[in-house]
Write a structure and sequence with these properties.
- Two copies of one chain form a homodimer.
- With 329 residues, chain A is of the alpha/beta class.
- Chain A has eleven helices and twelve strands.
- Chain A has helices at 3-6, 20-31, 70-77, 92-97, 99-120, 154-171, 199-208, 228-240, 258-269, 296-302, 310-324, and strands spanning 11-15, 35-40, 60-64, 82-85, 125-131, 177-182, 184-186, 213-216, 222-227, 248-250, 255-257, 274-277.
- In chain A, the strands form three sheets. A seven-stranded parallel sheet of chain A has the order 3-2-1-4-5-6-10, sandwiched between helices. The first copy, chain A, has a three-stranded mixed sheet with strand order 7-9-11.
- The radius of gyration of chain A is 19 Å and the shape is globular.
- The A-B interface holds A 96, 99-100, 103-104, 107-108, 111-112, 115, 146, 148-154, 156-158, 160-161, 164-165, 167-168, 171-172, 285-286 and B 96, 99-100, 103-104, 107-108, 111-112, 115, 146, 148-154, 156-158, 160-161, 164-165, 167-168, 171-172, 285-286.
């Protein structure tokens, strides 16, 4: 399927468009000839960063509001052909500290957004950014979409509620919605300030600042990673492809241990070190052990698979932050 | 396990205790020698009925408040040994009409309740009334707990969020929580006014008033039913048994088609008729097709299985309403 033609002269709204994935997607959509609109609450804690729109600020329309702000959401949704629904609370540890905010944004906010779409723009095609966190601790590997869902933190609960609403709105109201369960995504424009959202951003910061990369546990935990270019490709393919509507798909990448990952980052950077440290209190209890996803379903139904090798992706990300690090600290 | 001794001189809080299952459970707990407290918002639309406490009103303490009322919940939870957590929105059709209220009670309310318990009474043993609605349309029968969860209405989403929070609070905070996924429950003190909550209450009313029982569709849909005595038995066994903590169990009964059920009700009543009518608009889209549950897990781990034959249960229920119908219309 030719993505290039699906977005030319189309209107696309990105919720969370000031954030990591959203801002990269905005650039890509502009390249593809789309009109790009952004709805974002501009909260730096969720990854929003004005610098992420550097160079394209004049080409996109930004509505600064939370997805719980019904009036603003109505304004934003009107007339859109596509909705890339990336806004949300993503912090596992944050969800344990303030579970109500987490639930309010990820469930109440998503429900409001879907209701506004249903009433004012039911034909809009929606892709929702879900998370592999909904699986909890894997019972087998690689994890496919049939795996039981036993989230181990409040964020997994609220994100799961958000994805279920998307599917209900497809089944009951006939809307074009799709859910992608993303795994660890990395690349330019991600939040690297601390490890509130992701450990990998934090690792990059440690590496860039000449500090040892801190590995919690023993480094043997397995994870998989997607470069943001691959994640954007999945978003764009699914929004444009009716085969994806009503579906939940895992993304996924090549499995690697955290120790191997740290070593690879150091090798690509050319210097650096790591240290193995115990899990901080509060983190161990919500750690999911080993994880990597089976992305066979989206591959067979939508033709997506990841293409960016981890080594190249790390290089790409490092080069971005060599130049722009100061905007992310 | 001897349930009789587990509750003597113990304090038990029942949320939703003015409702169908809760009020029957209150009577049972009094019989077992427990001190019974009730927290209920007294909303007739959710099944609350003051007459349900007829004859035991002086023996129970009732706090009239919603589970979202943190101060009242704190007061209610204090010092309790057991919490039978039956409060909630249960209307499938209602959740499509007002999805925000449904989410607010079933997810935000449950999260508040759990937070209050965690902070003020973390040792309380909790059983949560879940629903088979979280499965959506079955992909195989009988449905076991490994079945994919694809709820077909907003109520399935919010109830699923509620049960996930109970499991997170077990896994992360070590609390004693258990979830029962109930199927169609029937018996004395259930709401029979209309079909907002259950079709079976409504069928009983039609039968009692000499009107034809209206069967939506073609009558071939399969369902399973539990008499409230069996459901109480499950609640009491699970709250008292550490093997159940952190677990999600299906309840379930003998499968029967709706047509057979209508005929059986008419036979037990001694007269009556039924008619096959098309699904009303809005109902068909959220109908789940055939369903019956596999209750092998709770049987093997907790020793529960249903004992009340459908014919006896129907007789029991009819006799209650022959006498008390006027309090339920």
């Amino acid at each position: 399927m030719d993505i290039a033609h699906s977005y030319r002269d189309k209107k696309a709204l990105i919720t969370g468009g000031l954030g990591f994935i959203g801002s990269n997607l905005a650039r890509k959509l502009l390249d593809l000839g789309a009109e790009v609109n952004i709805l974002d609450n501009a909260d730096p804690a969720t990854g929003a960063n004005p610098f992420n729109l550097d160079g394209i600020r004049q080409q996109v329309k930004v509505i600064e509001a939370d997805i719980q702000d019904e009036a603003k959401v109505k304004e934003a949704v009107q007339g859109q052909d596509f909705l890339f629904n990336l806004a949300g609370e993503m912090s596992h540890i944050g969800s344990m500290q303030d579970p109500f905010k987490d639930l309010s944004v990820n469930a109440v906010g998503q429900l409001k957004l879907l209701e506004v779409c249903r009433v004012t723009n039911p034909a809009v095609r929606i892709v929702f950014a879900g998370t592999r966190q909904v699986y909890g601790r894997p019972m087998y590997l690689p994890v496919d979409e049939k795996h039981l869902l036993t989230p181990l933190d409040n964020n997994g609960v609220s994100k799961r509620a958000g994805e279920m609403y998307h599917i209900v709105y497809n089944r009951v109201h006939g809307m074009a919605t799709c859910v992608l369960r993303m795994t660890n995504t990395y690349g330019p424009r991600m939040r690297i300030r601390d490890d509130r959202l992701t450990f990998i951003g934090w690792w990059f910061r440690q590496l860039l600042e000449g500090k040892p990369i801190q590995i919690f546990g023993d480094g043997s935990q397995i994870r998989d990673f997607n470069h943001v270019d691959d994640v954007m490709d999945a978003l764009l393919r699914c929004a444009a492809n009716p085969a994806a509507y009503g579906k939940i798909y895992n993304l996924g990448g090549e499995p690697i241990t955290l120790l191997e990952l740290a070593r690879l980052m150091i090798a690509v950077h050319g210097s650096g070190e790591y240290e193995i440290v115990p899990f901080p209190e509060g983190r161990k209890r919500i750690d999911i052990g080993d994880y990597y996803g089976n992305y066979g379903l989206i591959k067979s139904e939508v033709g997506w698979e990841p293409h960016v090798p981890l080594r190249d992706g790390i290089k790409d990300m490092l080069e971005y932050y060599y130049q722009h690090k100061r905007h992310y600290l």
